[in-house]
Design goal:
The chain is α+β, with helices and mostly antiparallel strands and about 270 residues long. Helix content is about 20%, strand content about 40%. It has 2 domains: about 100 residues, Diaminopimelate Epimerase, Chain A, domain 1 (Roll), CATH 3.10.310.10; about 130 residues, Roll (Diaminopimelate Epimerase, Chain A, domain 1), CATH 3.10.310. Belongs to the PhzF family.
């Protein structure tokens, strides 16, 4: 059984967000316990499992962190699409609904995802403790993701966050997104973000496509433009293009395969 490690939302190896990708034969998934063990062994923020379908969508797709299955994953969908390498739009049946990926002439892919709903929220004391800073605003995310989104004063504040991961874990079931406007939009991005979710086995996610389903409507409303570019300012870093279309958001990025091997442990 073949397994790839793909770096998503980047065109350079060892940057962006790595994902394991396993394309399965036949029309069913192996036992959940086996997929979870593979994801733990891979150790990336998500490992993706997909098998072909013959009705309703082209593929069934599931995503596992080292600790649990998740409802929505942008970089895993991008990585899976990169492995499939479609010449036309490809659709996935997922826990987050039907998702579509469209290959572009420039080698990037555009994902069609549901927009997250944002509700202004008070800042929990645990969140302030976790980041060691006073947020400007806070939002609860609903829909495909369930995170707490904190807007900070500026880009440097986002880059400087050194979170207390134990405090972040106490926010469960929420992950924690921090964001701010770009210091210099001429640098090639409009806003920055980081995401921490130790309760789901992800201390810091390198580049989170699903978080941009919340970041896109926030910053598009603030900046007055439907098309933006977000920089996730993790150590690995990566760029996510966003475009709002009503209740949907397009996420655009590139990917590169860094490992192509054989998974010897069969289900």
């Amino acid at each position: 059984m073949r397994i790839r490690i793909v770096d998503a939302f980047t065109d350079r190896p060892f940057t962006g967000n790595p994902a394991g990708v396993v394309l399965l034969d036949g029309g069913a998934f192996p036992p959940d316990s086996w997929m979870q063990r593979v994801a733990a062994e891979v150790g990336a923020s998500e490992t993706c499992f997909a098998h072909p379908l013959d009705d309703g969508a082209d593929w069934a797709l599931r995503w596992f962190t080292p600790a649990c299955e998740v409802d929505l994953c942008g970089h895993g969908t991008l990585a899976t699409t990169h492995v499939i390498a479609p010449s036309a739009p490809v659709s996935y049946r997922t826990r987050g609904g039907i998702l579509t990926a469209i290959p572009r002439a420039d080698g990037a892919y555009t994902l069609d995802f549901p927009v997250a709903r944002l509700t202004p929220a008070p800042v929990p004391a645990e969140a302030k403790e976790a980041i060691g800073a006073e947020p400007v605003r806070a939002y609860a995310c609903r829909g495909g993701i369930r995170d707490l989104l904190l807007e900070l004063s500026d880009e440097q504040a986002v880059r400087s966050v050194a979170p207390d991961l134990a405090a972040v874990a106490r926010l469960a079931p929420y992950g924690l997104i921090v964001t701010a406007a770009a210091k210099d939009p001429a640098a090639g991005y409009d806003f920055v973000s980081r995401l921490f979710d130790p309760a789901q086995g992800i201390d810091e996610d390198p580049v989170t496509g699903s978080a941009h389903t919340a970041l896109a409507p926030l910053w598009s409303a603030r900046l007055g433009r439907d098309e933006l570019t977000g920089l996730q300012a993790s150590a690995r870093s990566g760029l996510v293009g966003t475009k709002l279309r009503g209740e949907r958001v397009e996420l655009t990025g590139r990917a590169v395969t860094v490992i192509d091997g054989e998974l010897l442990a069969r289900p």
